[in-house]
Amino acid sequence: MSVKIRLTRIGRHKDPFFRIVAADSRFARDGRYIEQIGYFDPEKGVENAVIDEELALKWLNLGATPSDTVRAVFNRKGLLEKYSASKVQPAKKEKPAKKPAAKKEPAKKAPAKKTTKKAEE
Fold first, then answer.
1. In sequence order, which residues have a C-beta less than 8 Å from that of residue 13 and are 6 or more positions away?
2. The whole model's pTM is what?
3. Which residues span the domain enclosing 44?
4. Range name among 46-60, 61-75, 85-99 with the lowest pLDDT average
């Protein structure tokens, strides 16, 4: 399942208003979604978009891909910077080198059993 963070239109005719949602990419634009992350009114501008940062970062960490418009909104709000900062892993400590293992002697084979034939009568 490919999850995308995208806009869902809920406004009236010629009066757009959008929800920012996490949805399966196969669902319709205005159809079912998994979780609402925020909302955006283009008349008020990107600065007034309301986004739950915790939910947005959760979905980005889970691998959801934002649409181009949502990416621009997140970038303006500074969420992509927070995401990339949280994604950077601290330097890993190097493990000490392992000592070469001592060579094992091959196991000795057990002598073959001697079979005795019954004397024919």
1. none
2. 0.67
3. 3-87
4. 85-99
